[in-house]
Structure formats: structure tokens, C-alpha cells
Design brief:
heterodimer; A: about 650 residues; mainly alpha; 7-stranded mixed sheet; 26 helices; rod-shaped; B: about 550 residues; alpha/beta; 9-stranded mixed sheet; 9 strands
């Protein structure tokens, strides 16, 4: 991110402690860490103008013209020239910042810019008008994705499921409007663990009442180390009479500047109202110091009710073992180790060896042992200014994890080609495509046989037809096509394809897919009826192959041969003609044998075209049915699946994975 | 050591513990009824009912039945409390020897330890009380007892120690934490406390306002058990104030008359796992000894707890019974959903049959081509296939309706009901079988009819079968099939054949729907949720009431 106000004055203060060496190694390290916490971002649409200005300002010194953000550049500790080179730019950038870009994200100010006059002026200004918090790019895009996800899901999921996500969004937006310079840290713990004692020890004065009466503290008390936190404390619902200031001491103030400490009531006493208050405030603060004591550190309630569900918030969590003065010698270490083990079992990452995670300390608020260490860790933590964003990020994680069952199942989704084909086949069955094709083939063959058959055979068949009762044929013409489609098959086909499509989807989306299928299936049987009537029968006369006239001619000539041969013989018998038995008998025999021969060969030859004709009829019906099914059912299904995939991708963005896995 | 209220708050009348055999019989009958109660459906109250049942059963087995059978057995005082309250230290100090592990790491006591006088040992070594716990005997001063802890095998163990310092007639039991991180420990602690004649609740200066121990105190009050509270680990400076506060809280909860002892926090005891000086626990010890040795006090504290448990049955049994009733009601609702879905689908499929829905699609095309371009066999095939499709469709539709209805029922979430494998294929298979059987029988009927015919040219039986099937399944659309049939085998024969075939079809249809419905209900039936447990529980309770 570009140069910002948020970070600079602590940085300055940091610096004031050491001397003003620009390439101080420790400082550079610290910077490196910080910039890791807020990596460079591309989508700075809100701050585009600022970035522009910044770029212009530093274009002479910046070796990288690609518009990379400054935090990246200035965080590079290996390039001291870079940081010293932008001495002036930082100042300018900061001025720009003060006036225009109040919402800039917390990032590392170029620490080379340290004109003391500018610093003091700026610090004074910043103290009065605290800059609101801003989230870095990844977190912002995750929040956007979550917002979009909630919007997309509203019609599919009930509001109860989305309530938590909505709350996180609201809190993120609310926190964002408030000061980004302050870090709100709550002190929570069981009754009698010494929360108020620790609170007082950190503040340096006895602000919160301590005592042996249990429970002692009944309402949260806030203590702010610098001005401008009023709105933040308002948000916690802490009334003015319960707001305090710490002991005025320059050193301490410098260390903990920006800290707002909140002392909470207990969460485990018989007073249920206390627990409600704790739960309410814990949802709003940036970080939590959990105070446990040797007696209560293994209580089920703190682990099961708070630490385990908040395991994702480890980075904004301190766990403090108080009252070590009650433990003899090495027992304190033993207990601390046991506490670490329990936290580990709770799934809380422990911030040891520089890894991000919860900080575990042991101290005694009574004797003051370990308090300076805690103060130092807290000071560093508060100076980082990252707690609020990290808390929101952890909230988003938790909300995303809770929403996981309604968005991800880890199984493959989508409608396979196979399922589509099966659906088309079932629809074709429902309109009777196979039977229609076969019937058409046989009818064609029958007609061909009749056309090419010997007249005598036709005569006989005609006679037979008159004798036989014609069962089926009467009904064909008598009734129009009414419910020609098998309803049950259509219903079953739709149900099967919807089941296939919804397989692997989380329940609400599977339900939506099924509903889409049912909606699409309304009117489908009627459409198929209509379509079967239109597409079922090929229009016009059935096509005839080219050899057909020749075959008819040959059959006719065979008949003529028979007739001629017969007449000739008759003429001889009557004596009308000269007796010549051979030729007419030959003619007749040729005709008598040739007729069936022609008929038989025609039948063989007609088989191919008949099959083609039948297939054609079947295919037409099949395609029409499949087309109808696709338009009415498969397309809505695919659209619904696409919507799910879109949501799934949003969800993946929310989880930060970036790509939508299974 | 302070004893704030040396007088035990007794009920005004003197309770006596006379046990008749009839009472024991009634009690064991009641115990069997409780043991038989099951709550398999995941209703809102089911986990609670299950826990109540287990708890009640444990209390009957562990405490009430053995106590009523043998009133002369030693009193059992169970020391319970939160983690880190110093229960083990207290027990050790009372005994005067380290019998139970104490330490700074929580939870310390993972294995309950029972301490008794050597001569009382036989009362506890058997399975008279706490029959669920395996007894282990560890020679004392053996640091290796960690090895004998209940390991991963999940076996629950009770360690028994003997000590001469304890008077005869009383045994101390050091229970695990009631708010332990280990859930099993919590359950075990509750179970052990329920088995006590005297409940010794230990809390500390830092804990006396914790919610969890107060739940336990309220339970003790509800059960009217003999209760003692110990305020442990009180720093010297605040003894009077904390003690006063605690007393006020107890009084507010209606437990003001409970004997209350205060033990100060001493540096040598708390974290070293050592023993408190005898003076620190002297009053508690003498109170316990008095309970054991004074027959009157002994009888009274015993009877008070026993009758408390008996009285508590009055509210606990109806609770169980109502949970059982809720289970049955839920099962009825689930069954009704299945019945409703299958009934309406059955009606629908009948209607569709009458309307001739089977003669559609393939079958209709075949019928139109019959007899010129289609054989009787093909027509029959098509009809059978279409009929199977209709049946399968209605069965799956019914299943879908059941799923829909069950989705709204929390009780349908039982794993036994949801883990039903999607047996659509097998339904298809079963329906196919049924339809094939129907077709075969239909053909037999047709053959019989044709054989009876005294005509010179008998019609083909297959054609007759196809025609009768068409006439039956085709509704209005297949009127001509009926005419054709009458032409072939005569009007009378056609009518008879149609009637028989129609009855056959109805039989098969009913059987198919019935089979599928039974299959759907089978997992629910397997859960065996019956109406009887409710009545039996109440009946057992009233018998017990009468015997008291």
C-alpha cells in the first residue's frame, strides 16, 4: 500500500527510542514483518487517486515503474538507497494522506521521512482526528466475496444460516468506520483469576475494583491510552462513567499508545448476566487477553465454551497464567507447559519461535512479575495496528467454516454427458420412438411387398383381410393423439436426471436443482404429445428407391408373360393357332417362376430402404423429444448448477483459497 | 478450622429406614423398566432423557438398591468439586496419609480412589456398589500407579485403599472433577456423587461463585441428600469475609442449614501434594466420625439420602415416561408420513391405471401397429414394461414425498433412518419381477380360457393375452381391444377373463405398494419405539409408591 498516516507516528516513536539511522537492522526487520502482515495489493480502487499521486511523487527515485505499492518497496531492507531516496516523497505522501486519503490502509510508512517538525505537527493532528481503520487487499476482497456470497445465497438459504456471516460483515463495516489507530484489547477470564488486578497493573492505577467477593467486576470497564477512542468504546456499549485513563507516565504512554483495554466480568460465575456481557463484548473487540490461574486453567468452561470455538483467533489472543506467586519454584513452569499442552489440544496455534499464533505468558499481577514482558508484547502488538484486521479475518474464516456444509461437500458436481444421454433416451422411450420406428419400417416393408408382389398373392391377401377382424387399425384413425406420451416415464426421467444433477450438492442447492427440474417438467408431457403428433409420421408418401419402377415393371411383365403364355395355349387348344406347345409353356413357366422370384428379390432389396425409413422416423422422434427435454429441463438445470458453481467460487474466495476446489 | 454451623439441619420428623421385601421387589422391577427404556430418535429432549436414564439407572444400581438391601453397610462419603479445589489433598489429610495423587497439574485425579477401614474392605471390594467400575488394588507408596490408570481401553477403574486411621463404618471416595476437561471424567464424577450417602462438596475462595458447583449443590438440594460443603484454600486474610459471602450465597439458595466447614490455604499443603495439618481438618473429620459411629446420626444421614432419592423418583420417572411418549409420538408421525405418502400414491396409480396411462408411448405405438406390424408378444412386452415404469414412478414419488415430510421431522435424523442405502435399483428389480409374474399368470389365464373354447380354429393364446392386457390397461382408448377379444373368445369368456385379469392386476399392484412401504418402514420398526414403556414406567412408579 502507499504511504499512510496510520503507521507513521509510532514508527517515529519507535525511532525516537533509537537514534535516527535509516538502515538500522532491527528496524528493518520489524518493517519486514509488518509488510508481511499487510502484503501489497492490486485492487486499490478506493485509493487509486492517492496511489497515483504517490507514484508521481516518487517516480524519480523509484526504480520500479510498474506501480508496485510502496510498502513493498520500502520494506525491502536490502535496498537502503531506496528508503533514503524517498525521503521527500514520504513527506509529500504523508501530507497528501493527511488531507485526502483518510481511509488508507495500515501499511509501513517510509521511515526515512522523519522531519521532526512534520512529525510533531502530524502526531498532534492524528491524535485529534483518528484515521479510520482500513483493511488490506486480500481481506477486503474476502469481505466483498462474503457480501456477494450472502447476496447470492439469500434466496436459497434460510436467514438463520446466513446470520453469522451477516453479523461478521456488519461488524467489519462498523469497525472499519472507527479508529484504525487504536487496538481494543479485552481482558477475559474466570472469576477470581485476577482480571481486574492485571488491568490495574497494566494501567498503573487501581481503576477496577478488586476483591475477594466473587464475582467482583459486574460491568466492563475501559481504559484508553490515547485520545480518539471514544467511538470505539461507544461501540462496546461502555458508559462514560466506566471509562478511565491510565496513570500519566510518558514512558508507559509511549509504549502502549493506541491501546484501549477493557476489563470484562467473569464468564463462569453463577451470575448469568455476566456471561452475556462477556459474549457480547468479545464479539466486538480486536484482541483478547485470557487470564487463567493455576487453580482454574483446566476448567472445562473456558476451554470448551471459549478457547476451542475461538481457536481461529489465535493470532489476536494472549493467554496469561496469573498468580504464579501462589506456585512454588518450578511448579510455575510445569503448569505453564501443561497450559500450553491444553491450548494445543484446543487447536490454538501458539506463537512460539516467531510463528503467528497466541502468546502465552506467565505473570503475577500481585507482585508484578512478568508485567513488563506483557507490556512489551502488548506494545509491539498495538504498534503493529494489525489486530483489528486480523480479528476480522479470523471472523471471516470462522463464518466461512461454519457455512462450509451449505457450500461445499467435497464431491464432484455437475451433470455428466452420460446423464444427459440417459435423460434423452428416457424421453424417447416415453414418446415410443423405438416402437414408432419399428412400426414405420414394417409398414414400409409391407407396402413394398404388396406393391411388388404377384397380383395373385395380393388378391389372396385382400380376401384374407376382408375375413380377418381388423383390431388395431380402427382405433388409429378413430382417436386423435390424446396423452400419447407416457406420463410416468417423463416423470421418472425428470426425477432421475434431477437426482443425478443434484448429487454431490449441499442440501439447499440440491433442493433448488430439484425444484428447477420439477418446474421445467411442467407441461413437458403435453409438449411431447404435440411433438409426437407432428414429428412421428413422415410427411407425404414414403420415399421409394430408384429401382422401384423397374421392379414393378418386371413384376408386371412377368404377369404379362403368364397371361400371354396362357392366351397362346388357349388359342392352341381352341385351335385358333398353330400348335406349338414349347414356347407358350416356356413363357408361362417363366412368368410363374419369375413372379415370385421378382417378389422375393424385391423383398430382399427393400429391406435396406425399409430399415433406413424406420430409423429415420425413430431418429426424428428421438431428436425432437431430446430437444424438447433439453430446452425445458436440462437448460434450467444447467443454469441452476452454474449458479451453484458461481456461489462456490465466491465461497472459495471467502476462504481465501482463490480457486474453487471440489 | 472453623465450623460455622455445627448443627445439621434435619427435617423435623425423624426418618427411619425400614425396608420391606415388597419395596425391594418393586424397586428392582422399576430398575428393569428404566433399563429397558430407549430413546433412539434424535428429538430435542432425547439426549437429556438418555442422560437422565443413565444417571437414574446408575443411581439405582450404585446406591439405592444396595443401600436398601444392606442398611448396615458403611456410609460412603464422596468428595466432589471443581478442578483444583483440593479434593485429593482434603482426602489425604482426613486419612492422614497420601492415598490420592495431588498436584499442580489439572486434572489430577483421573482414577477415583475409595478409602475405607481394613475391616470394611469386603463391603467395597465386591460388586455391591458401583458395579460398573473395575476394582484395582495398588499397594500403597507405589508411585507407579499411573500405569494402572484406565488407558485407551476405556475401562473405568476404582482404586480401593485401606487406612486404619479411618473409623469403621465410613468410607471416603475422592471423585474426579465435576467440570473436568475430559468429558468422561465429568460423567464419572456425577455418577460417583450420585452413589454417595454423604455428599461432600469442596469449593475454594476463588471458586465459590462458579456456576458449575452451584448446579451440583442445587441437585443435592433437589434430591434432599445429606450434604456438607467445604470452603477450601481460603487465604488467612480473607477468611471471615469469604466465609460470610459464601454463607450468604448458600442461604440465598436455600441451603443455609447445610454444615459448612472452612479450611485455610496453607503453603505446605496446596501445591506440594502434602498433607494439611490435622488441626485444619479436625472439625470435618470429627463430624464424619460422628456420622459413622453415632447410630442415630448415621441412620439419619443414610435415611435422608435414601428417601431423597426415592422421593426424587416421583419427578424423574414421569420425566422419563414423557420422553418415551414423545419418542412414540415422533415414531407415529414418521409412520403416518410414510403411510400417507404411499396411500396417496397408491390412489394415484389406480387412477392412472383406470385412465389407461399404461397404454402410452411405446405401448401405444405397438398397439396401433398391432396386428399388422407388431406381434402379440411385442405388444405384451411393451405393456409390461410400461406398467413397470408406472409402478416404479409411483414408488419413487412416494419415497420422495416421505423424504420431504421427514425432512421437517427432527426425529428422522436418526442414523438408522438416514443411512438407508438408495435401493432404487432393487426397487426397480422387485417391481420388474412382480410385473413379469403378473404377465406369466395372465398368459396362463388366457391359455386356460382358450383351451376351454370348443371352436374348430382356436385363437392364439398369446394374442388373447395381449388383447386382454390392452383392454385392461388401456382404459377408454383400448375399447376396440375388448371388442376384438369378444370376437375371439366370445362375449362371456371375454368378460370372465377380463374380470380375472383385473383382480390379478389389483392383487399385484397392492402387493408391490405394500412391499415397498414395508421396506421403507423397516428401519423405523427396527428401532422398536413402542407405546408400552411410558405406561410401564408410570406403573412401576405407582407400585413403588404404594409399597413405601
Amino acid at each position: 500500500m502507499t504511504a499512510v498516516t496510520d503507521q507513521d507516528h509510532t514508527d517515529e516513536m519507535d525511532h525516537a527510542d533509537h537514534t535516527g539511522h535509516a538502515d538500522d537492522g532491527r528496524d528493518a526487520d520489524a518493517k519486514d514483518e509488518r509488510s508481511e502482515n499487510s502484503p501489497p495489493v492490486e485492487d486499490a480502487e478506493e485509493t487509486g487517486d492517492l496511489e497515483d499521486a504517490d507514484d508521481h511523487a516518487r517516480v524519480s527515485a523509484d526504480a520500479d515503474p510498474s506501480g508496485r505499492t510502496e510498502s513493498k518497496a520500502s520494506a525491502d531492507p536490502t535496498d537502503p538507497e531506496e528508503s533514503t531516496g524517498s525521503w521527500d516523497d514520504g513527506l509529500i505522501a504523508r501530507r497528501v494522506n493527511e488531507t485526502t486519503a483518510a481511509q488508507q490502509a495500515a501499511a509501513v510508512e517510509n521511515r526515512a521521512s522523519r522531519a521532526h517538525a512534520a512529525y510533531t505537527a502530524h502526531a498532534a493532528q492524528a491524535a485529534h482526528v483518528p484515521a479510520p481503520l482500513a483493511y488490506d487487499g486480500p481481506l477486503r476482497s474476502r469481505l466483498d466475496a462474503l457480501r456477494e456470497l450472502v447476496g447470492l445465497s439469500r434466496t436459497r438459504l434460510d436467514s438463520g444460516t446466513l446470520a453469522e456471516a451477516g453479523r461478521v460483515l456488519d461488524e467489519a463495516a462498523a469497525r472499519r468506520r472507527l479508529s484504525g489507530q487504536h487496538t481494543v484489547v479485552a481482558i477475559a477470564g474466570a472469576t477470581g483469576s485476577g482480571k481486574s488486578q492485571l488491568f490495574n497493573a497494566l494501567a498503573g492505577v487501581a481503576i477496577s475494583e478488586t476483591g475477594v467477593r466473587r464475582p467482583t467486576t459486574a460491568a466492563p470497564i475501559a481504559c484508553s491510552w490515547s485520545d480518539g477512542a471514544a467511538t470505539l468504546i461507544d461501540r462496546l456499549g461502555i458508559p462514560g462513567r466506566l471509562r478511565r485513563r491510565p496513570l500519566q507516565s510518558a514512558e508507559m504512554e509511549a509504549q502502549l499508545r493506541g491501546l484501549v483495554l477493557v476489563d470484562l466480568p467473569d464468564h463462569d460465575s453463577a451470575a448469568v448476566a455476566h456471561r452475556e456481557q462477556v459474549d457480547r463484548v468479545l464479539a466486538l473487540v480486536d484482541a483478547v487477553i485470557w487470564v487463567v490461574d493455576p487453580e482454574k486453567y483446566a476448567d472445562a468452561i473456558i476451554h470448551e465454551r471459549y478457547l476451542r470455538p475461538m481457536a481461529g483467533h489465535a493470532e489476536v489472543m494472549f493467554v496469561v497464567l496469573n498468580q504464579i506467586d501462589r506456585l512454588p519454584g518450578e511448579a510455575a513452569d510445569q503448569v505453564l507447559d501443561d497450559l500450553r499442552r491444553l491450548l494445543d489440544e484446543d487447536g490454538i496455534a501458539l506463537g512460539e519461535y516467531g510463528e503467528p499464533g497466541a502468546t502465552v505468558l506467565s505473570l503475577s499481577a500481585l507482585t508484578g512479575d512478568g508485567i513488563p514482558e506483557l507490556r512489551e508484547v502488548l506494545g509491539q502488538f498495538v504498534a503493529d495496528r494489525g489486530a483489528a484486521a486480523r480479528r476480522i479475518s479470523a471472523d471471516v474464516d470462522a463464518a466461512a467454516w461454519r457455512l462450509r456444509p451449505v457450500y461445499a461437500t467435497g464431491r464432484r458436481t455437475g451433470l455428466s454427458e452420460e446423464a444427459r444421454d440417459e435423460f434423452a433416451a428416457r424421453l424417447a422411450d416415453s414418446v415410443g420412438a423405438t416402437a414408432a420406428g419399428e412400426a414405420a419400417e414394417r409398414a414400409w416393408l409391407r407396402n413394398a411387398n404388396r406393391a411388388c408382389g404377384t397380383p395373385w398373392l395380393r388378391l389372396w391377401r385382400w380376401y384374407n383381410d376382408r375375413r380377418e377382424p381388423a383390431t388395431g387399425r380402427l382405433s388409429i384413425r378413430a382417436q386423435a393423439d390424446e396423452e400419447a406420451t407416457a406420463r410416468q416415464r417423463v416423470e421418472q426421467a425428470v426425477r432421475t436426471v434431477a437426482d443425478r444433477a443434484s448429487g454431490g450438492l449441499p442440501a439447499p442447492w440440491a433442493q433448488a436443482v430439484r425444484e428447477a427440474a420439477v418446474r421445467g417438467a411442467q407441461g413437458l408431457p403435453e409438449a411431447l404429445d404435440e411433438l409426437a403428433a407432428r414429428a412421428g409420421l413422415p410427411v407425404g408418401r414414403p420415399p421409394r428407391p430408384g429401382w422401384w419402377p423397374a421392379a414393378v415393371l418386371a413384376q408386371a411383365s412377368m404377369t404379362i408373360l403368364q397371361v400371354v403364355g396362357g392366351l397362346w395355349l388357349l388359342g392352341q387348344i381352341i385351335g385358333f393357332m398353330a400348335p406349338n406347345l414349347g414356347v407358350p409353356v416356356l413363357l408361362m413357366v417363366a412368368g410363374i417362376i419369375g413372379g415370385p422370384l421378382v417378389e422375393w428379390s424385391c423383398r430382399l432389396a427393400a429391406r435396406g430402404p425399409a430399415r433406413r425409413y424406420g430409423h429415420d422416423a425413430e431418429r426424428r422422434l428421438r431428436e425432437a423429444a431430446a430437444g424438447c427435454g433439453r430446452a425445458r429441463v436440462l437448460d434450467p438445470l444447467a443454469a441452476e448448477l452454474l449458479r451453484y458453481r458461481e456461489v462456490r467460487e465466491q465461497y472459495a474466495r471467502v476462504t481465501g483459497a482463490g480457486v474453487g476446489g471440489g | 478450622m472453623l465450623q460455622n454451623s455445627p448443627k445439621i439441619g434435619h427435617s423435623s420428623h425423624v426418618v427411619t429406614l425400614d425396608v420391606r421385601p415388597q419395596l425391594l421387589d418393586a424397586l428392582s422391577a422399576l430398575r428393569d423398566r428404566v433399563a429397558a427404556a430407549r430413546f433412539p430418535l434424535p428429538l430435542a429432549g432425547a439426549p437429556r432423557a438418555r442422560a437422565n436414564r443413565d444417571e437414574l439407572l446408575a443411581q439405582l444400581d450404585d446406591y439405592l438398591v444396595p443401600r436398601l438391601k444392606e442398611p448396615e453397610a458403611p456410609l460412603l462419603a464422596v468428595v466432589g468439586g471443581s478442578t483444583g479445589a483440593g479434593k485429593s489433598t482434603l482426602v489425604n489429610s482426613l486419612v492422614g496419609r497420601r492415598v490420592s495423587e495431588a498436584g499442580v497439574l489439572r486434572p489430577t485425579t483421573r482414577t477415583p480412589v475409595l478409602v475405607c477401614h481394613p475391616e470394611d474392605h469386603h463391603w467395597f471390594s465386591g460388586m455391591r456398589v458401583l458395579p460398573d467400575l473395575t476394582r484395582v488394588w495398588v499397594p500403597h507408596q507405589d508411585p507407579g500407579d499411573e500405569l494402572l490408570l484406565p488407558g485407551e481401553d476405556g475401562m473405568r477403574v476404582l482404586r480401593i485403599e485401606t487406612a486404619d486411621t479411618l473409623p469403621r463404618g465410613i468410607a471416603l471416595l475422592d471423585a474426579p472433577d465435576i467440570d473436568s476437561l475430559v468429558a468422561d471424567n465429568r460423567v464419572l464424577a456425577a455418577e460417583l456423587i450420585c452413589a454417595a450417602d454423604i455428599w461432600v462438596m469442596v469449593t475454594t475462595a476463588a471458586r465459590y461463585a462458579d456456576a458449575v458447583p452451584w448446579h451440583l449443590l442445587r441437585t443435592a438440594k433437589e434430591h434432599n441428600a445429606t450434604l456438607v460443603t467445604v470452603l477450601d484454600r481460603v487465604p488467612h486474610q480473607v477468611v471471615s469475609e469469604v466465609s460470610r459471602q459464601y454463607g450468604a450465597l448458600l442461604a440465598k439458595a436455600g441451603l443455609g442449614d447445610v454444615p459448612r466447614f472452612t479450611v485455610p490455604e496453607l503453603p505446605e499443603s496446596a501445591w506440594g501434594g502434602g498433607l494439611l495439618p490435622a488441626s485444619a481438618v479436625a472439625t470435618l473429620r470429627s463430624w464424619l466420625v460422628q456420622q459413622a459411629q453415632d447410630p442415630g446420626a448415621r441412620h439419619e444421614s443414610m435415611a435422608r439420602t435414601a428417601y431423597g432419592v426415592l422421593d426424587s423418583l416421583k419427578s424423574r420417572m414421569p420425566e422419563l415416561a414423557s420422553a418415551a411418549a414423545a419418542q412414540y409420538a415422533a415414531a407415529l408421525r414418521l409412520t403416518a408420513a410414510v403411510d400417507g405418502a404411499y396411500d396417496s400414491e397408491h390412489a394415484r396409480v389406480r387412477g392412472r391405471l383406470q385412465a389407461g396411462a399404461v397404454l402410452a408411448g411405446d405401448a401405444l405405438k405397438r398397439w396401433r401397429a398391432f396386428p399388422l406390424d407388431c406381434s402379440a408378444g411385442e405388444l405384451l412386452d411393451a405393456l409390461a414394461e410400461s406398467l413397470a415404469a408406472l409402478l416404479l414412478c409411483s414408488v419413487t414419488a412416494a419415497d420422495e414425498r416421505v423424504d420431504d415430510a421427514w425432512r421437517r421431522e427432527p426425529a428422522a435424523g436418526a442414523p438408522e433412518l438416514t443411512d438407508r442405502d438408495p435401493s432404487l435399483e432393487s426397487a426397480e428389480h422387485r417391481i420388474g419381477m412382480a410385473v413379469r409374474r403378473w404377465r406369466r399368470e395372465l398368459e396362463e389365464y388366457a391359455e386356460e380360457e382358450v383351451a376351454d373354447l370348443d371352436r374348430s380354429i382356436a385363437p392364439d393364446p398369446e394374442v388373447v393375452a395381449a388383447l386382454v392386457a390392452t383392454a385392461l390397461l388401456g382404459g377408454r382408448r383400448a375399447r376396440s381391444a375388448g371388442e376384438g377379444l369378444a370376437e375371439r373368445i366370445g362375449a362371456h369368456g371375454a368378460l370372465r377373463l377380463r374380470d380375472r385379469a383385473g383382480r390379478l392386476l389389483n392383487d399385484h399392484l397392492d402387493r408391490v405398494v405394500h412391499t415397498e412401504r414395508e421396506r421403507r418402514l423397516a428401519p423405523l420398526d427396527a428401532l422398536e419405539v413402542h407405546p408400552e414403556p411410558q405406561a410401564e414406567l408410570i406403573a412401576a412408579l405407582s407400585v413403588l409408591q404404594k409399597e413405601r
